[in-house]
Automatic annotation (TrEMBL):
<comment type="similarity">
    <text>Belongs to the ROK (NagC/XylR) family.</text>
</comment>
<dbReference type="InterPro" id="IPR036390">
    <property type="entry name" value="WH_DNA-bd_sf"/>
</dbReference>
<keyword id="KW-0119">Carbohydrate metabolism</keyword>
<protein>
    <submittedName>
        <fullName>N-acetylglucosamine repressor</fullName>
    </submittedName>
</protein>
<dbReference type="InterPro" id="IPR043129">
    <property type="entry name" value="ATPase_NBD"/>
</dbReference>
<dbReference type="Pfam" id="PF00480">
    <property type="entry name" value="ROK"/>
</dbReference>
<comment type="function">
    <text>Transcriptional repressor of xylose-utilizing enzymes.</text>
</comment>
<keyword id="KW-0859">Xylose metabolism</keyword>
<dbReference type="InterPro" id="IPR036388">
    <property type="entry name" value="WH-like_DNA-bd_sf"/>
</dbReference>
<dbReference type="InterPro" id="IPR000600">
    <property type="entry name" value="ROK"/>
</dbReference>
Length: 375
């Protein structure tokens, strides 16, 4: 079945919501209730959506809620981060059925990381007795640079072996299903919009800091990509003109100041020890000072982002903000201090909905939304 553009819009809208009535869909898309009734009937017949409970909406009669059919598709998500690669299998409702992970370091010396990644995907599915034929689409999020036209992974700045990999064509051939590839910060923004707190927010930014920095910029409900598909390279903006050389080739990048390995390095330079988290949790002054300096650097960078894009919310994620909370406090304080006061009056600084699973939820959300649009 080939869906028309209005049917795709309806399907996308239902995928974004926690159940929607026909009346609400008609209002949102500015279409008549009659046409919505016809189109939702064909989507029901195709098994793409299901009817749920009748829910009262004020004084009118009860409305039947429509949902994605959870059994229609099965998605495989792959989240390639700076430190960990995560895999997850999910229903069409994006409920995770199985998940697994491996370390990026395990692939560092492999001459063909794409081949090893595919073997890992096969192994992941095989341990749950899932055949590749059961997968309807694969979503891959990667914290790197992607050629949008040719769907090639051009580079992961922190992982030198991952260059010019034709991930989409080789994985789609091997798994015999569509494969969708997107930058990891952007997939996190897609997950936040589809299933998270940004469900009703059109201007927001997701930032994830761990072994690298990833960012997704959603403007007027659309992901910002840029002419070379590199928009959102927050980790590689210059934060210290006298800073050290970054793996991207530039000097003084934000990633060289605030990522977990950099905080550990900074603390080691001062104390000779690499146990910054443990030291912080024992109120070690030098550990706290390192966190304050890093939080200020991130806060300055994000205050510039606030002035440029005027988002409603920035979702700041990463385990180290939980382990060393002053990092987050200093980041937030600096954003408010440095951002333009007219831009920060209603600015909301929040944590991402899915925590450490934001990346893998993003890869799954990418698979789902792209697969709907391809119907
Ligand atoms: Zn850099």
């Amino acid at each position: 079945m080939k869906l028309n553009s209005s049917e795709k819009q309806i399907l996308e809208l239902i995928s974004l919501g926690q159940g929607l009535s026909r009346k609400k869909i008609a209002e949102t898309l500015h279409l008549t209730q009659g046409s919505i009734t016809n189109m939702t009937r064909s989507l029901l017949e195709e098994g793409l959506i299901i009817e749920g409970n009748r829910i009262s909406s004020g004084l009118g009669r009860k409305e039947v809620m429509l949902y994605s059919n959870p059994n229609k598709f099965t998605f495989l998500g792959v989240d390639i981060g700076g430190h960990v690669i995560r895999f997850a299998l999910a229903t069409n409702s994006l409920e995770i059925i199985h998940e697994g992970e491996c370390l990026m370091a395990d692939l560092a010396t492999e001459p063909d990381p794409a081949e090893v990644l595919m073997q890992m995907m096969h192994t992941f599915l095989a341990q749950w007795n899932i055949s590749p034929a059961q997968i309807d689409a694969i979503g891959i999020g990667v914290t790197g640079i992607i050629d949008a036209t040719q769907q090639i992974l051009l580079s992961i700045p922190n992982s030198p072996g991952w260059e010019h990999l034709e991930l989409v064509s080789i994985i789609s051939q091997r798994f015999n299903c569509p494969v969708y590839l997107e930058e990891g910060g952007r997939t996190m923004a897609i997950a936040e919009q589809m299933l998270g707190k940004a469900n009703a927010i059109s201007d927001f930014i997701t930032v994830q800091v761990g072994f690298g920095i990833a960012a997704g910029i959603m403007i007027n409900g659309k992901l910002l990509k840029g002419v070379n598909n590199t928009a959102g390279l927050l980790g590689h903006i210059t934060a210290d003109p006298n800073g050290t050389r970054c793996l991207c080739g530039n000097y003084g990048c934000l990633e060289n100041i605030i990522t977990f390995p950099m905080l550990r390095n900074d603390y080691r330079k001062i104390t000779g020890k690499s146990t910054i988290v443990e030291a912080y949790q024992q109120n070690d002054k030098q550990a706290i000072d390192v966190c304050v300096a890093a939080g200020q650097a991130l806060g300055i960078a994000l205050s510039n982002v606030v002035n440029l894009f005027n988002p409603q919310t920035i979702y700041i994620g990463g385990a180290m903000f939980d382990q060393m909370p002053i990092l987050l406090e200093e980041t937030k304080r600096t954003i408010i201090l440095r951002g333009n006061r007219f831009s920060t009056t209603s600015l909301n600084l929040d944590r991402p909905t899915f925590g450490l699973k934001q990346g893998i939820m993003g890869a799954l959300a990418l698979a789902k939304i792209s697969h709907i649009m391809a119907q």
